[in-house]
Design a protein that fits this description.
This protein has about 90 residues and is mainly α. The chain contains 3 helices and 2 strands, in the order ββααα.
């Protein structure tokens, strides 16, 4: 099998099948402390990257209505809207 930058690649013709391109990107100024609080975590947890559980999302939705509504409250007024091209 070919070797590609630290990865064994089964199909060298398509070495990056999981590259994701983002189209409608917008800036969100969200302090980690406020995200942790909204999800019901203490500040020491979580560390690094992890997907919140469904129960944590329900905590956020109960307080803010929806994840989008929560994130919208941290979008600067100069940031393009979710469906606008950047």
């Amino acid at each position: 099998m070919p070797y590609d930058g630290g990865r064994i690649v089964a199909n060298k013709e398509e070495p990056w099948p999981f590259v994701i391109y983002l189209d409608r990107v917008r800036r969100i100024d969200l302090p980690a402390e406020e995200l942790h609080e909204a999800l019901g975590y203490s500040m020491e947890y979580p560390q690094g990257f992890m997907r919140p559980t469904d129960e944590r999302f329900e905590t956020l939705r109960a307080k803010h209505g929806s994840v989008r509504s929560f994130l919208d409250s941290y979008t600067p007024p100069t940031s393009p809207g979710l469906f606008e091209k950047v």
